[in-house]
Amino acid sequence: MMTKRERLITALKHEEPDRIPIDLGSMRSTGITALAYYQLINFLKIRNSTIRVYDTGQQLAEPEKKILELFGVDVIDITRSLPPCGPYRREWKKWTLPNGVECEVPINFNPEPDGRGGWVIRNDKGIVISRMPPKGFYFDGNYHPLEKIKSINDIDDYNWEAHKISDKTLRKLRENAIFLRETTGYGLLFHSAGSIHEWGQGLRGWTNWIVDLSVRKKIAEKMLDHMIEVIMYNVKKLVSALDGIVDVLGFGDDLGTQNGPQISPKIYREMLKSYHEEMYGYVRKHSKMFIFLHSCGSIYDLLPDLIDAGVEIINPVQISAAKMNPRNLKEKFGEELVFWGGGVDTQNILINETPENVSRHVKENICIFGKNGGFVFTQVHNIQPFTPPENIVTAYKTVLKYGKYPLSFCEC
Amino acid sequence: MTENEIFSKIREGFLSFDFEETKELVKDALERGVDPVEIIEKSLRPAMEIVGEKFEQGEFFLSELVVAGDLFKEIMDELISPRLKKEEKELGTVVIGTVRGDLHDIGKNIVATMLRVAGFKVIDLGVDVSPEAFLEAVKKYKPDIVGMSALLTTTMIEMENVIKELEKAGVRKDVKIIVGGAAVTEDFAKKIGADAYGKDAVEAVAICKRLVGVS
């Protein structure tokens, strides 16, 4: 029998391990929301559970050891704070979920009531940077610090240095990774190596950034110059701290929407591709870590360029989006790309269908994506509130039962 | 240069997304005394229709739609609107918003822009709009159409609450309802009793035109 890590690495090398490797929560788009997690542990009758909301924006709960074991999870995040985890952890305090259930949140998470049943979060200057409306389930960022620049020089004045990773953080990441490598058999992932398109959107606002990339190119180029300087500083530091210990280095850049790419392949090639090449190229040249890109939505039209830029693993494989049909993806890109996700659709199937249909859907997807390796099972993005826990359990049980190589059940 | 040549030049500038050039051309045309309404109807709107067609055919991507919408808005705000003597004839009024609990407005904003380009009066209620606020807007603005957007599976159910609120107040029959957003489907729209579903901004505009009897 293979160790979890061997299983993961084999699949990432496009070979068939003993079974399809599984992920739940190794990064912030393969996880489960706290409300869904609460329902899941109740359904499974797990006692003495800790609902730890480690991603407060998306309200994600860290899957506990019992869940990792029950679901056959093979890969974990080196920044985990519940066992199995490294020595450096954040501090936590009590909070209450929208359904009244007690949970834990990071000690520096200090939302204020907005006076109408929702919450706001302010930065150190008192500016509201994100909010969760009443009846909402996420803290969405609504502050774009470079949205209203008066001149291109305002971009130079932004505090770019603040985004550079500190040596102290690097040391902690490295020690956590070493500890997990020495004491567990899990595959290890670090997912915050950088984003450039999404970062530009965050700083300028979505529409502004799209217009910058398309026609206000001087602004876009100035932004990109600053961003790549910070990203490459961080990437180099991360590679030197984590190579040989961590298996997968994650980047994120949402480039799709439900119906198609946000930007044309032409703009991607003109404005962004060279930066991705620089980021991913460095990792490829200087480390053995696999390059993982999280990019939501329909990105079919951009995949050839992303592969060319150096992406080895794609996530979340949003199979419900346009042109993202599993068979087509595997046939076109399966030899070059590992699909990390796409195991079960979360927009329609996992949340609305019967367990029988969930199981059928998972079997279909693992037959397609699992062939010749190159597949890590997880649902498309995070499991949303109100997803029936029975469906979640069914999805993971199905892959454990049917995901053993050779996938002989697929023949019939 | 004849007026028709001017209109054609503006269309060309618009379609190459050259903001400076297009704005210069519009400015020149206005200084020559060309009717601003004619500039909209014979240059900007036809150009935008071409952008929409190319988007539907897959030749253009969302970025082109967004840039074209931004260019249209800049020309309107900076050059045309200040010179409009009378209100332009409108195709109808649309009250639009992202439903309660949901703060996502990218899709909704694109639809609102495209509706304005097409000649609708658009009342944009913003994001996190409660059923009560939709009802209030229906009573106040007496729109032809109510458009609702949601990105999330957790908030799209709010669309049904809005419809119920309008039914309860007896105004549901006075408006047509169109819904859209990432997780929303045609089946879902039918199930909650909406009149239509638009998969993207261009389709939404075509449907709204049909709903008010123009096409």
Query: What is the total domain count of chain B?
Result: 2
Structural class determined from secondary elements of chain B: alpha/beta
Estimate what percentage of residues of chain A fall within beta strands: 5-15%
What is the average per-residue confidence, as pLDDT of chain B, rounded to a whole number? 95
Spatial ordering of strands, largest sheet of chain A: 4-11-12-13-14-15-16
Low-confidence regions of chain A: none
Q: Structural class given helices, strands, pairing of chain A?
A: alpha/beta
**How many runs of DSSP E, i.e. beta strands of chain A?**
16
User: In whole angstroms, how far apart are the ends of chain A?
Assistant: 27 Å
> What spatial order of strands do you see in the largest sheet of chain B?
2-1-3-4-5
Q: Which CATH first-tier class of the largest domain in chain B would you pick?
A: Alpha Beta
Report the β-strand fraction of chain B as a percent range: 5-15%
Helix tally of chain A equals: 14
How is this structure best described in words?
The complex is a heterodimer of chains A (412) and B (215). With 412 residues, chain A is an alpha/beta fold. Chain A is built from 14 helices and 16 strands. Chain A has helices at 4-12, 34-43, 65-70, 153-157, 167-183, 197-204, 206-214, 217-242, 265-286, 303-309, 326-333, 349-352, 355-370, 389-402, and strands at residues 32-33, 53-55, 60-61, 75-77, 92-96, 102-106, 112-113, 119-122, 128-132, 140-141, 187-190, 248-252, 290-294, 313-315, 338-340, 375-376. In chain A, the strands form 4 sheets. A 7-stranded parallel sheet of chain A has the order 4-11-12-13-14-15-16. Chain A has a 4-stranded antiparallel sheet with strand order 7-8-9-10, with no helix packed on it. Chain A is globular. The two termini of chain A are 27 Å apart. The model of chain A has no long low-confidence stretch (mean pLDDT 96). With 215 residues, chain B is α/β, with parallel strands linked by helices. Chain B has 2 domains: 3-83, Methyltransferase, Methionine Synthase (B12-binding Domains), Chain A, domain 1 (Orthogonal Bundle); 93-211, Rossmann fold, CATH 3.40.50.280. Chain B has 9 helices and 5 strands. Chain B has a 5-stranded parallel sheet with strand order 2-1-3-4-5, with helices on both faces. In chain B, helix 5 (106-118) links the parallel strand 1 and strand 2 (121-124). In chain B, helix 2 packs parallel to helix 4 (62-80) and helix 6 packs across helix 7 (158-168). Chain B starts with a helix and ends with a helix. The mean pLDDT of chain B is 95. The chains are: A alpha/beta (412), B alpha/beta (215). The A-B interface holds A 131, 133-138, 140, 142, 206-207, 210-211, 213-215, 257-265, 267, 301, 346-348, 351, 384-386 and B 17-19, 58, 60-64, 66-67, 70, 100-104, 106-107, 109, 127-128, 152-155, 158, 182-183, 185, 199-200.
